[in-house]
Amino acid sequence: MAAKLILSMDGAVLKEYPLNKERMTIGRKEHNDIAIDNLAVSGEHAAIVTILHDSFLEDLDSTNGLEVNGKPTKKHFLQNNDVIEIGKYKLKYINDQITQTSPADFEKTMVLRAPVKPAATSANKPAGTPSSQVESKQVHEEAVELTGKFEMPQVAVAPVQAFAPADASKQIAVVQVLTGPNAGKELELVKNLTTLGKPGMQVAVLTRRPHGYFITHVEGENFPLVNGQALTNQAHQLNEHDVIELAGVKMEFYFKE
To answer: Which has the minimum average pLDDT: 49-53, 137-141, 207-211, 216-220?
Structure first.
């Protein structure tokens, strides 16, 4: 059974919304998946991304903000019975599924800076060229500009289950930066969830599943590109050597030997 949100005001239940899409938006405008016609609600107020049995909430730079369980928040890993408050409205999160993902997996992994100038030689570098452990550490230190992590409640979480391709023992998925000051650096996708992008500009999450890797748009007015085509609200499965363009940086997805 899919998780759901129960919308209420002053104790009266107004509507239930099953979280049956990877990304659902909450806002005043009619195009939102959960439309709340009230001036206290921004046009696009917040978004909820649901991956497997887990959901996380993010404020989309709304005017009046939002609260979860009475506390103001910008990002929150949702737990069963959490109550999201937007103005006078409340959205109760109901999910009786056992959490499969550690909250730590929702930490931002890499924030990419837009390139200062194009790196002409990096585009010609073979996609499978390995980088040293030092380079992997450098891309984490140089490219990552963490401005905050998802706020996680202190609760017991079920052990993390590994979701990976059937031949995971031989294949390790990698994202290699093609443009910008970190061109040539690579990031191994060792977590079930890896968040890439620049907060406030464009953010996407890469998900490791039993049948492959998927990319889902999380934040930003413009959607990331894969091989020159803009993503939709739904998850998109990545194929060998797909080129992702996110926050002004191009990256290539591939499997290492």
So the answer is: 137-141
Mind listing the pLDDT tens digit for each residue in 43-100? 999 999 887 777 888 898 899 999 999 999 888 888 889 999 999 999 999 987 654 4
Q: How far is Cα of residue 178 from the mean position of the Cα atoms in its chain?
A: 21
Do residues 216 and 196 touch, judged by C-beta distance below 8 A?
no
CA–CA–CA angle 206, 102, 194 (5° rounding):
15
pLDDT in tens, 23-43: 899 999 999 999 999 999 999
Alpha carbon distance 230, 199 (integer Å): 19
Please provide residue 190's backbone torsions phi and psi, each rounded to the nearest 5 degrees.
Answer: -90, -15
Q: Give the C-alpha separation, 43 to 91, whole Å.
A: 17
How many angstroms separate the CA atoms of 114 and 118, rounded?
10
What are the angstrom distances between the C-alpha of 156 and each of 69, 71, 73, 119, 167? 18, 20, 21, 46, 31
- Strand ordering across the sheet containing 225-226: 186-188, 172-177, 249-256, 242-246, 225-226, 229-230
Query: Measured between alpha carbons, how far is 7 from 17 in angstroms, rounded to an integer?
Result: 8
DSSP element (H, E) containing 134: helix 133-143
Q: Which helix (H) or strand (E) holds 138?
A: helix 133-143
